[in-house]
């Protein structure tokens, strides 16, 4: 018989893998940029040339981008280093989603805005909230190179028993309810006692991701 803890861990892991599937192209792109810079540096050194400030700046820039990429991925995982510094409240969840959507949305014409409630509002499972939010947004992003802009809006809110993220994509190219990742998201949100509601029509997708507030389970 499956233990509850094991089942929750499995749901988390399947959801993280689904998110990383959407990020694979972006990860490969950023990794290739670093390797290209490294190859150029090697050629300069073999030719006996010194590294200019411009080349050094390129190296610093690519290293910073890779550091940002790793940090963004870690923010939606169980080993988030920032969790030791402050509670993973709704603002931290929105930060994590922001970074990943900006990464995945490069070249897709994304305009991203978000609103967080005042005060420290802590969801019972911030990782699940972030991952399910991403699995709702990522299938709806437009392809790279498409003309026009897609507005992605997130609104955090809370009451005594529940923390919510309202999502709107306009226009959206997909329907998350029709994607296989949606089943993974729904399984995870149900496991942690939350809910996922998705509605779409006329090119717009609206959704709500909600989990219990910490201490109210």
Molecular structure report:
- The protein is an alpha+beta fold and 217 residues long.
- Helix content is 48%, strand content 18%.
- It has 5 helices and 5 strands; from the N terminus they run H-H-H-E-H-E-E-H-E-E.
- A 5-stranded mixed β-sheet has the order 1-2-3-5-4, covered by helices on one side.
- It starts with a helix and ends in a 5-residue tail after the last strand.
List the keywords.
18% strand; alpha+beta; 5 strands; Heat Shock Protein 90; 217 residues; five-stranded mixed β-sheet; 5 helices
Please write out the topology.
Layout: H1 4-46, H2 53-75, H3 90-104, E1 110-115, H4 126-137, E2 150-158, E3 162-170, H5 180-191, E4 195-201, E5 204-212
Parallel strand pairs: 1-2
Antiparallel strand pairs: 2-3, 3-5, 4-5
How large is the radius of gyration? 19 Å
Give the class from helix and strand content and strand pairing.
alpha+beta
Total discrete domains: 1
Q: Look at the structure and give the mean pLDDT.
A: 81
CATH class: Alpha Beta
Second-tier CATH architecture? 2-Layer Sandwich
Secondary-structure element order, as H and E? Answer: HHHEHEEHEE
Major beta sheet, strand line-up: 1-2-3-5-4
Would you count the extended β strands for me? 5
- Helix tally equals 5
Main beta sheet: 5 strands, mixed
Provide the CATH superfamily: Histidine kinase-like ATPase, C-terminal domain
What is the CA-CA span between the terminal residues? 24 Å
Helicity level, as a percent range? 40-55%
Task: Please tell me what the overall shape is.
Answer: elongated
If you consult CATH, what is the topology?
Heat Shock Protein 90
Which percent band covers the strand fraction?
A: 15-25%
User: Which residues form runs of ≥5 with pLDDT under 50?
Assistant: 1-5
């Amino acid at each position: 018989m499956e233990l509850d803890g094991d089942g929750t861990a499995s749901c988390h892991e399947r959801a993280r893998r689904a998110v990383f599937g959407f990020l694979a192209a972006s990860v490969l792109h950023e990794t290739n940029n670093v390797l290209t810079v490294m190859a150029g540096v090697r050629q300069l050194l073999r030719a006996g040339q010194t590294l200019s400030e411009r080349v050094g700046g390129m190296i610093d820039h690519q290293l910073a981008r890779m550091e940002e990429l790793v940090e963004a991925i870690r923010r939606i995982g169980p080993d988030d280093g920032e969790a030791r510094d402050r509670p993973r409240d709704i603002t931290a969840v929105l930060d994590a989603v922001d970074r990943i959507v900006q990464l995945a949305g490069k070249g897709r014409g994304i305009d991203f805005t978000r609103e967080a409630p005042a005060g420290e509002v802590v969801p019972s499972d911030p990782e699940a909230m972030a991952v399910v939010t991403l699995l709702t947004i990522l299938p709806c992003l437009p392809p790279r190179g498409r003309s026009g802009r897609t507005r992605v809006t997130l609104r955090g809110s809370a009451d005594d028993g529940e923390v919510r993220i309202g999502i709107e994509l306009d226009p959206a190219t997909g329907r998350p309810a029709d994607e296989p990742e949606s089943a993974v998201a729904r399984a995870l949100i149900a496991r942690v006692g939350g809910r996922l509601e998705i509605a779409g029509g006329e090119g717009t997708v609206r959704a709500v991701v909600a989990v219990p507030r910490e201490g109210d389970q």
